Automatic annotation (TrEMBL):
Family affiliation: Belongs to the outer membrane porin (Opr) (TC 1.B.25) family.
Keyword Disulfide bond found: no
GO molecular function: hydrolase activity; porin activity
Stored SUPFAM superfamilies: Porins (SSF56935)
Species in which this protein is naturally found: Pseudomonas fluorescens
One of the Pfam families matching this protein, by short name: OprD
The organism's taxonomic lineage, starting at the top: Bacteria, Pseudomonadati, Pseudomonadota, Gammaproteobacteria, Pseudomonadales
Recorded GO CC terms: membrane
Chain positions covered by the region annotation Disordered: 107-132
Name assigned to this protein: Porin D
Keyword Transferase among UniProt keywords: no
Enzyme class: hydrolase
Keywords: Hydrolase, Signal, Transport
Source taxon at top rank: Bacteria
Extent of the signal sequence: 1-23
Protein backbone atom coordinates (compact mmCIF):
# COMPACT_ATOMS: atom_id res chain seq x y z
CA UNK A 1 0.00 0.00 0.00
CA UNK A 2 1.12 3.48 -0.53
CA UNK A 3 1.07 6.58 1.60
CA UNK A 4 1.23 9.00 -1.28
CA UNK A 5 -0.72 7.88 -4.37
CA UNK A 6 0.32 9.26 -7.78
CA UNK A 7 -2.61 9.21 -10.20
CA UNK A 8 -2.03 9.37 -13.91
CA UNK A 9 -3.54 12.85 -14.01
CA UNK A 10 -0.99 13.99 -11.44
CA UNK A 11 1.78 12.62 -13.63
CA UNK A 12 0.36 14.41 -16.63
CA UNK A 13 0.08 17.71 -14.80
CA UNK A 14 3.62 17.43 -13.44
CA UNK A 15 4.82 16.80 -16.98
CA UNK A 16 2.89 19.70 -18.42
CA UNK A 17 5.34 22.55 -17.99
CA UNK A 18 6.41 22.18 -21.60
CA UNK A 19 3.20 20.87 -23.14
CA UNK A 20 1.73 24.21 -24.00
CA UNK A 21 4.93 26.15 -24.65
CA UNK A 22 5.96 27.31 -28.11
CA UNK A 23 9.68 26.96 -27.49
CA UNK A 24 11.16 23.70 -26.19
CA UNK A 25 12.47 23.34 -22.67
CA UNK A 26 16.04 23.12 -23.95
CA UNK A 27 15.66 26.38 -25.90
CA UNK A 28 14.72 28.08 -22.63
CA UNK A 29 17.58 26.59 -20.60
CA UNK A 30 19.40 29.11 -18.41
CA UNK A 31 22.30 26.82 -17.60
CA UNK A 32 23.57 23.98 -15.42
CA UNK A 33 23.90 26.11 -12.27
CA UNK A 34 21.31 28.80 -13.02
CA UNK A 35 18.39 26.31 -13.19
CA UNK A 36 19.59 24.08 -10.35
CA UNK A 37 17.78 23.37 -7.09
CA UNK A 38 18.93 22.02 -3.73
CA UNK A 39 16.39 20.82 -1.16
CA UNK A 40 17.04 19.38 2.30
CA UNK A 41 14.03 17.46 3.58
CA UNK A 42 13.89 16.54 7.25
CA UNK A 43 11.40 13.88 8.31
CA UNK A 44 10.57 12.61 11.80
CA UNK A 45 8.34 9.55 11.88
CA UNK A 46 6.74 7.75 14.80
CA UNK A 47 5.06 4.45 14.00
CA UNK A 48 3.11 2.18 16.31
CA UNK A 49 1.41 -1.08 15.36
CA UNK A 50 -0.55 -2.99 17.99
CA UNK A 51 -1.35 -6.49 16.70
CA UNK A 52 -4.36 -8.34 18.13
CA UNK A 53 -5.61 -11.90 18.51
CA UNK A 54 -2.32 -13.53 19.41
CA UNK A 55 -0.20 -12.22 16.55
CA UNK A 56 3.13 -10.54 17.05
CA UNK A 57 6.65 -9.93 15.86
CA UNK A 58 8.88 -11.75 18.40
CA UNK A 59 8.25 -15.47 18.79
CA UNK A 60 8.50 -17.29 22.13
CA UNK A 61 10.20 -20.67 22.47
CA UNK A 62 7.55 -23.34 22.12
CA UNK A 63 5.17 -21.15 20.13
CA UNK A 64 3.25 -17.93 20.49
CA UNK A 65 4.60 -14.40 20.70
CA UNK A 66 6.21 -12.32 23.43
CA UNK A 67 4.45 -9.18 22.25
CA UNK A 68 2.20 -7.99 19.45
CA UNK A 69 3.41 -4.44 19.90
CA UNK A 70 5.73 -2.64 17.46
CA UNK A 71 6.95 0.90 18.00
CA UNK A 72 9.72 2.91 16.36
CA UNK A 73 10.71 6.56 16.05
CA UNK A 74 13.36 7.90 13.73
CA UNK A 75 14.61 10.96 11.92
CA UNK A 76 15.89 11.23 8.37
CA UNK A 77 17.56 13.85 6.23
CA UNK A 78 17.29 13.64 2.44
CA UNK A 79 19.24 16.21 0.43
CA UNK A 80 18.42 16.27 -3.28
CA UNK A 81 20.24 18.29 -5.91
CA UNK A 82 18.82 18.77 -9.41
CA UNK A 83 20.94 20.70 -11.85
CA UNK A 84 19.67 22.61 -14.81
CA UNK A 85 20.82 21.73 -18.32
CA UNK A 86 23.75 23.29 -20.09
CA UNK A 87 22.78 25.59 -22.94
CA UNK A 88 22.91 24.57 -26.59
CA UNK A 89 21.10 22.13 -28.84
CA UNK A 90 21.84 19.30 -26.40
CA UNK A 91 21.84 19.98 -22.68
CA UNK A 92 23.67 18.01 -20.00
CA UNK A 93 22.83 17.83 -16.32
CA UNK A 94 23.21 15.88 -13.09
CA UNK A 95 20.86 14.92 -10.27
CA UNK A 96 22.16 13.62 -6.96
CA UNK A 97 20.96 12.77 -3.47
CA UNK A 98 22.34 11.81 -0.09
CA UNK A 99 20.20 10.57 2.77
CA UNK A 100 20.62 9.30 6.29
CA UNK A 101 18.53 8.07 9.21
CA UNK A 102 18.99 7.95 12.97
CA UNK A 103 17.00 5.86 15.42
CA UNK A 104 15.38 7.91 18.18
CA UNK A 105 13.45 5.07 19.81
CA UNK A 106 12.88 1.35 19.24
CA UNK A 107 14.44 -1.92 20.31
CA UNK A 108 14.61 -5.51 19.10
CA UNK A 109 11.48 -6.45 21.03
CA UNK A 110 9.42 -3.82 19.21
CA UNK A 111 11.01 -3.93 15.76
CA UNK A 112 9.27 -4.72 12.50
CA UNK A 113 7.63 -1.49 11.29
CA UNK A 114 10.10 -1.02 8.46
CA UNK A 115 11.74 2.18 9.68
CA UNK A 116 15.14 0.57 10.27
CA UNK A 117 17.10 -2.41 9.01
CA UNK A 118 18.21 -5.01 11.55
CA UNK A 119 21.83 -5.85 12.41
CA UNK A 120 23.26 -9.38 12.69
CA UNK A 121 21.78 -9.76 16.18
CA UNK A 122 18.31 -8.65 15.14
CA UNK A 123 18.51 -5.19 16.67
CA UNK A 124 17.45 -2.10 14.70
CA UNK A 125 20.35 -0.18 13.21
CA UNK A 126 21.14 3.09 15.01
CA UNK A 127 22.11 4.95 11.83
CA UNK A 128 22.01 4.31 8.10
CA UNK A 129 22.84 6.28 4.97
CA UNK A 130 22.61 6.06 1.19
CA UNK A 131 23.59 8.24 -1.75
CA UNK A 132 23.42 8.23 -5.52
CA UNK A 133 23.47 10.28 -8.70
CA UNK A 134 22.04 10.24 -12.20
CA UNK A 135 23.33 11.90 -15.36
CA UNK A 136 20.78 13.41 -17.74
CA UNK A 137 20.70 14.66 -21.32
CA UNK A 138 18.01 16.82 -22.92
CA UNK A 139 17.26 17.42 -26.58
CA UNK A 140 14.26 19.68 -27.17
CA UNK A 141 11.64 18.23 -24.79
CA UNK A 142 13.14 14.75 -24.58
CA UNK A 143 15.16 13.75 -21.50
CA UNK A 144 17.32 10.66 -21.05
CA UNK A 145 18.37 9.94 -17.47
CA UNK A 146 20.72 7.21 -16.23
CA UNK A 147 21.71 6.34 -12.69
CA UNK A 148 20.06 6.09 -9.27
CA UNK A 149 16.67 7.81 -9.27
CA UNK A 150 13.14 7.91 -7.89
CA UNK A 151 10.47 6.57 -10.23
CA UNK A 152 6.68 7.10 -10.29
CA UNK A 153 5.34 4.84 -13.04
CA UNK A 154 2.18 2.83 -12.28
CA UNK A 155 4.11 -0.31 -13.29
CA UNK A 156 7.36 0.56 -11.49
CA UNK A 157 7.17 2.98 -8.55
CA UNK A 158 9.59 3.63 -5.69
CA UNK A 159 7.87 3.84 -2.30
CA UNK A 160 8.37 6.69 0.18
CA UNK A 161 6.23 5.66 3.16
CA UNK A 162 9.00 5.38 5.77
CA UNK A 163 12.09 7.47 6.59
CA UNK A 164 13.91 7.24 3.25
CA UNK A 165 12.50 6.32 -0.16
CA UNK A 166 13.31 3.32 -2.29
CA UNK A 167 15.82 4.08 -5.05
CA UNK A 168 15.96 2.49 -8.51
CA UNK A 169 19.02 2.22 -10.72
CA UNK A 170 18.68 2.31 -14.47
CA UNK A 171 17.68 4.36 -17.48
CA UNK A 172 14.52 6.40 -18.04
CA UNK A 173 13.54 8.19 -21.25
CA UNK A 174 10.79 10.83 -21.12
CA UNK A 175 9.42 12.40 -24.32
CA UNK A 176 7.10 15.44 -24.33
CA UNK A 177 7.47 16.65 -27.92
CA UNK A 178 3.74 16.64 -28.76
CA UNK A 179 1.34 18.93 -26.94
CA UNK A 180 -0.54 16.99 -24.26
CA UNK A 181 1.33 13.73 -24.84
CA UNK A 182 3.98 12.21 -22.58
CA UNK A 183 5.81 9.03 -23.55
CA UNK A 184 8.18 7.14 -21.29
CA UNK A 185 10.36 4.04 -21.46
CA UNK A 186 12.92 2.65 -19.08
CA UNK A 187 15.06 -0.25 -17.98
CA UNK A 188 15.99 -0.73 -14.33
CA UNK A 189 18.44 -3.31 -13.01
CA UNK A 190 18.53 -2.64 -9.26
CA UNK A 191 16.16 -1.45 -6.56
CA UNK A 192 17.15 -0.42 -3.05
CA UNK A 193 14.56 -0.83 -0.30
CA UNK A 194 13.65 1.94 2.13
CA UNK A 195 15.91 0.42 4.79
CA UNK A 196 18.46 -1.06 2.38
CA UNK A 197 21.54 1.04 1.85
CA UNK A 198 22.98 -1.09 -0.95
CA UNK A 199 21.89 -0.52 -4.54
CA UNK A 200 20.03 -3.86 -4.74
CA UNK A 201 18.18 -4.87 -1.59
CA UNK A 202 14.64 -5.69 -2.69
CA UNK A 203 14.45 -9.43 -2.20
CA UNK A 204 12.72 -12.09 -0.20
CA UNK A 205 13.66 -15.33 1.52
CA UNK A 206 13.46 -17.30 -1.69
CA UNK A 207 13.98 -14.60 -4.34
CA UNK A 208 17.19 -12.97 -5.59
CA UNK A 209 15.69 -9.54 -6.04
CA UNK A 210 15.31 -7.47 -9.18
CA UNK A 211 17.36 -8.58 -12.17
CA UNK A 212 15.79 -6.25 -14.71
CA UNK A 213 12.52 -4.44 -15.33
CA UNK A 214 11.60 -2.95 -18.69
CA UNK A 215 8.77 -0.41 -18.63
CA UNK A 216 6.90 1.79 -21.10
CA UNK A 217 3.99 4.17 -20.80
CA UNK A 218 2.01 6.99 -22.36
CA UNK A 219 -0.41 9.61 -21.08
CA UNK A 220 -2.47 11.98 -23.19
CA UNK A 221 -4.35 15.08 -22.06
CA UNK A 222 -7.37 14.96 -24.38
CA UNK A 223 -9.01 18.04 -22.84
CA UNK A 224 -8.51 20.20 -19.74
CA UNK A 225 -10.74 17.75 -17.87
CA UNK A 226 -9.87 14.37 -19.37
CA UNK A 227 -6.58 12.46 -19.28
CA UNK A 228 -5.89 8.80 -20.00
CA UNK A 229 -2.84 6.60 -19.90
CA UNK A 230 -1.44 3.14 -20.50
CA UNK A 231 1.68 1.41 -19.19
CA UNK A 232 3.33 -2.00 -19.32
CA UNK A 233 6.24 -3.75 -17.63
CA UNK A 234 8.31 -6.90 -18.06
CA UNK A 235 10.02 -7.83 -14.80
CA UNK A 236 12.51 -10.56 -15.69
CA UNK A 237 11.69 -13.98 -14.17
CA UNK A 238 8.78 -12.57 -12.16
CA UNK A 239 5.81 -11.24 -14.15
CA UNK A 240 4.48 -8.99 -16.87
CA UNK A 241 1.94 -6.24 -16.19
CA UNK A 242 -0.33 -4.02 -18.26
CA UNK A 243 -2.09 -0.96 -16.84
CA UNK A 244 -4.70 1.52 -18.01
CA UNK A 245 -6.09 4.69 -16.44
CA UNK A 246 -8.79 7.21 -17.33
CA UNK A 247 -9.53 10.29 -15.27
CA UNK A 248 -12.36 12.72 -16.06
CA UNK A 249 -13.56 15.79 -14.15
CA UNK A 250 -16.97 17.25 -14.87
CA UNK A 251 -17.16 20.86 -13.59
CA UNK A 252 -20.67 21.68 -12.41
CA UNK A 253 -19.96 25.27 -11.38
CA UNK A 254 -17.24 27.25 -9.57
CA UNK A 255 -17.96 25.41 -6.31
CA UNK A 256 -18.88 21.91 -7.46
CA UNK A 257 -17.41 19.15 -9.61
CA UNK A 258 -17.56 15.42 -10.26
CA UNK A 259 -14.45 13.32 -10.84
CA UNK A 260 -14.23 9.74 -12.11
CA UNK A 261 -11.00 7.72 -11.89
CA UNK A 262 -10.59 4.25 -13.44
CA UNK A 263 -7.48 2.12 -12.83
CA UNK A 264 -6.88 -1.44 -14.04
CA UNK A 265 -4.04 -4.00 -14.06
CA UNK A 266 -3.45 -7.35 -15.71
CA UNK A 267 -0.57 -9.46 -14.34
CA UNK A 268 0.87 -12.81 -15.44
CA UNK A 269 3.96 -14.71 -14.28
CA UNK A 270 6.81 -15.38 -16.68
CA UNK A 271 10.27 -16.97 -16.81
CA UNK A 272 11.23 -18.67 -13.56
CA UNK A 273 8.15 -17.18 -11.83
CA UNK A 274 10.16 -16.36 -8.71
CA UNK A 275 7.03 -15.06 -6.93
CA UNK A 276 5.24 -18.27 -7.87
CA UNK A 277 2.16 -18.33 -10.06
CA UNK A 278 0.76 -14.89 -10.90
CA UNK A 279 -2.56 -14.66 -12.70
CA UNK A 280 -4.58 -11.60 -11.73
CA UNK A 281 -6.84 -8.89 -13.08
CA UNK A 282 -7.46 -5.92 -10.81
CA UNK A 283 -9.55 -2.80 -11.39
CA UNK A 284 -11.07 0.05 -9.41
CA UNK A 285 -13.48 2.87 -10.18
CA UNK A 286 -13.78 5.89 -7.90
CA UNK A 287 -16.29 8.74 -8.11
CA UNK A 288 -15.75 11.94 -6.15
CA UNK A 289 -18.16 14.84 -5.64
CA UNK A 290 -16.57 18.12 -4.51
CA UNK A 291 -18.53 21.04 -3.14
CA UNK A 292 -16.61 23.90 -1.56
CA UNK A 293 -14.44 22.56 1.24
CA UNK A 294 -15.99 19.09 1.12
CA UNK A 295 -15.29 16.05 -1.04
CA UNK A 296 -17.27 12.80 -0.92
CA UNK A 297 -15.82 9.71 -2.61
CA UNK A 298 -17.17 6.24 -3.26
CA UNK A 299 -15.15 3.47 -4.92
CA UNK A 300 -15.49 -0.13 -5.99
CA UNK A 301 -12.57 -2.49 -6.59
CA UNK A 302 -12.48 -6.03 -7.98
CA UNK A 303 -9.69 -8.63 -8.06
CA UNK A 304 -10.11 -11.75 -10.22
CA UNK A 305 -7.92 -14.63 -11.35
CA UNK A 306 -6.09 -17.54 -9.77
CA UNK A 307 -3.91 -15.36 -7.52
CA UNK A 308 -3.94 -12.00 -5.79
CA UNK A 309 -2.21 -8.94 -7.24
CA UNK A 310 1.53 -9.06 -6.41
CA UNK A 311 4.18 -6.34 -6.35
CA UNK A 312 7.34 -5.45 -4.43
CA UNK A 313 10.27 -6.49 -6.58
CA UNK A 314 9.01 -3.79 -8.97
CA UNK A 315 8.70 -1.26 -6.15
CA UNK A 316 6.45 -1.15 -3.12
CA UNK A 317 4.59 1.81 -4.59
CA UNK A 318 3.45 -0.12 -7.66
CA UNK A 319 -0.25 -0.32 -6.89
CA UNK A 320 -2.32 2.55 -8.28
CA UNK A 321 -5.86 1.53 -7.31
CA UNK A 322 -8.51 3.21 -5.20
CA UNK A 323 -8.64 0.78 -2.27
CA UNK A 324 -4.92 0.47 -1.64
CA UNK A 325 -4.84 2.30 1.68
CA UNK A 326 -2.82 2.47 4.92
CA UNK A 327 -2.63 -1.23 5.80
CA UNK A 328 -4.47 -3.34 3.24
CA UNK A 329 -4.61 -3.19 -0.55
CA UNK A 330 -7.84 -5.25 -0.80
CA UNK A 331 -6.36 -7.38 -3.59
CA UNK A 332 -7.07 -10.92 -2.33
CA UNK A 333 -8.03 -13.71 -4.71
CA UNK A 334 -11.46 -12.83 -6.18
CA UNK A 335 -11.87 -10.04 -3.61
CA UNK A 336 -14.44 -7.31 -4.13
CA UNK A 337 -14.32 -4.18 -2.00
CA UNK A 338 -16.16 -0.89 -1.49
CA UNK A 339 -14.95 2.43 -0.11
CA UNK A 340 -16.59 5.50 1.36
CA UNK A 341 -14.41 8.54 1.96
CA UNK A 342 -14.79 12.14 3.17
CA UNK A 343 -12.23 14.97 2.82
CA UNK A 344 -12.41 18.42 4.39
CA UNK A 345 -10.20 21.38 3.46
CA UNK A 346 -10.28 23.97 6.23
CA UNK A 347 -9.03 26.78 3.99
CA UNK A 348 -12.67 27.65 3.28
CA UNK A 349 -13.18 28.14 7.02
CA UNK A 350 -10.19 30.41 7.50
CA UNK A 351 -7.52 27.84 8.36
CA UNK A 352 -5.44 27.32 5.19
CA UNK A 353 -3.13 24.33 5.33
CA UNK A 354 -5.35 22.23 7.62
CA UNK A 355 -7.14 19.20 6.18
CA UNK A 356 -8.96 16.09 7.41
CA UNK A 357 -9.75 12.74 5.82
CA UNK A 358 -11.76 9.70 6.93
CA UNK A 359 -12.46 6.53 4.91
CA UNK A 360 -13.81 3.03 5.36
CA UNK A 361 -13.19 0.05 3.07
CA UNK A 362 -14.92 -3.33 3.28
CA UNK A 363 -13.84 -6.38 1.30
CA UNK A 364 -15.34 -9.87 0.97
CA UNK A 365 -15.61 -12.90 -1.35
CA UNK A 366 -11.90 -13.67 -0.80
CA UNK A 367 -10.71 -17.16 -1.68
CA UNK A 368 -8.62 -18.58 1.19
CA UNK A 369 -6.54 -21.72 1.72
CA UNK A 370 -9.09 -23.03 4.23
CA UNK A 371 -11.91 -22.79 1.71
CA UNK A 372 -13.83 -20.35 3.92
CA UNK A 373 -14.76 -16.93 2.52
CA UNK A 374 -12.31 -14.28 3.63
CA UNK A 375 -13.47 -10.86 4.76
CA UNK A 376 -11.62 -7.72 5.84
CA UNK A 377 -12.33 -4.10 6.63
CA UNK A 378 -10.29 -1.03 7.51
CA UNK A 379 -11.00 2.45 8.87
CA UNK A 380 -8.53 5.31 8.32
CA UNK A 381 -8.42 8.78 9.79
CA UNK A 382 -5.88 11.42 8.84
CA UNK A 383 -5.25 15.06 9.62
CA UNK A 384 -2.49 17.26 8.24
CA UNK A 385 -1.40 20.84 8.79
CA UNK A 386 1.08 22.70 6.58
CA UNK A 387 2.45 26.09 7.63
CA UNK A 388 1.61 28.59 4.90
CA UNK A 389 4.06 31.39 5.63
CA UNK A 390 6.94 32.55 7.81
CA UNK A 391 10.46 31.17 8.29
CA UNK A 392 9.09 27.61 8.71
CA UNK A 393 6.86 27.76 5.62
CA UNK A 394 5.94 24.25 4.32
CA UNK A 395 6.64 22.58 7.67
CA UNK A 396 3.96 19.90 7.97
CA UNK A 397 2.47 17.81 10.78
CA UNK A 398 0.55 14.67 9.87
CA UNK A 399 -1.37 12.15 11.96
CA UNK A 400 -2.41 8.85 10.34
CA UNK A 401 -4.50 6.24 12.12
CA UNK A 402 -5.85 2.89 10.92
CA UNK A 403 -7.90 0.09 12.43
CA UNK A 404 -7.72 -3.15 10.44
CA UNK A 405 -9.74 -6.30 11.07
CA UNK A 406 -10.28 -9.56 9.15
CA UNK A 407 -12.06 -12.82 9.83
CA UNK A 408 -10.09 -15.90 10.93
CA UNK A 409 -9.91 -17.35 7.41
CA UNK A 410 -8.16 -14.27 6.00
CA UNK A 411 -6.05 -13.55 9.10
CA UNK A 412 -4.33 -16.88 8.50
CA UNK A 413 -3.54 -16.05 4.85
CA UNK A 414 -2.81 -12.33 4.96
CA UNK A 415 -2.07 -10.28 8.07
CA UNK A 416 -3.23 -10.06 11.65
CA UNK A 417 -5.69 -7.54 13.03
CA UNK A 418 -3.90 -4.42 14.16
CA UNK A 419 -4.19 -0.77 15.10
CA UNK A 420 -1.71 1.48 13.29
CA UNK A 421 -0.79 5.03 14.38
CA UNK A 422 1.79 7.21 12.65
CA UNK A 423 2.93 10.76 13.33
CA UNK A 424 5.00 12.38 10.59
CA UNK A 425 6.69 15.78 10.81
CA UNK A 426 8.35 16.98 7.62
CA UNK A 427 10.21 20.12 6.64
CA UNK A 428 11.49 20.64 3.08
CA UNK A 429 14.04 23.47 3.12
CA UNK A 430 14.78 24.96 -0.29
CA UNK A 431 18.43 26.03 -0.29
CA UNK A 432 18.73 26.88 -3.99
Amino acid sequence: MRVMKWSMIALAVSAGTSQFAIASSQDESKGFVEDSSLVAKTRIEYMNRDFRNGAGNVAKPGGGFKSGYRQDTGISELVTYESGFTQGIVGFGLDAFVGGTAKLDGGSGRRGNGLFASDSEGNPEDTQSKAGAAAKIRLSDTVLKYGRQFVASPVFATDDSRLLPEVAEGTLLTVKEIKGLELSAGRFTALSSQTGMGKDSINGKHTPGLTSANIAGATYQFTDNFVAGIAASDVDDYFKKQYINANYTFPINDEQSLNFDLNAYKSKDQGQALYGEVDNKLWSLAAAYSIGAHKFTVAHQQSTGDTSYLYGVDGNGTIFVANSIQISDFVGIDERSWQGRYDLNMKTYGVPGLSFMARYVYGDNIETTSGTEGKEHEFNFETKYVLQEGPAKDLSFRLRSAIYRANDAYNADYTADNNDVRIIVEYPLSIL
